[in-house]
Amino acid sequence: MTKRNYATVNPCVMCQPMGSALAFKGIENTMVLYHGSQGCSTYMRLHLAHHFREPVDIASSSLSEKGAVYGGKENMKKKGSRTSSTGTNRR
Description:
Mean pLDDT: 75
Distance between the termini: 62 Å
Largest sheet: 2 strands, parallel
Oligomer: single chain
Order of helices and strands: HEHEHH
């Protein structure tokens, strides 16, 4: 009989979007923008804020089910105009 090793995997460690957010947070004057649901970015924002013990900014395009089916281009246009008007987009 072979010995079995049972282990649990922390889903936060396996989260690729969270890894990309950490990579972009290391680049000066960048802003992380997820083209996805608001819940995903809120979860990552909360997890990273608890880990680093300081607020973390992660923007979301708030992609909904309707946007996923019919296209979310309008949400991206709205988010892009908001970030450029606030001066957080640096060129």
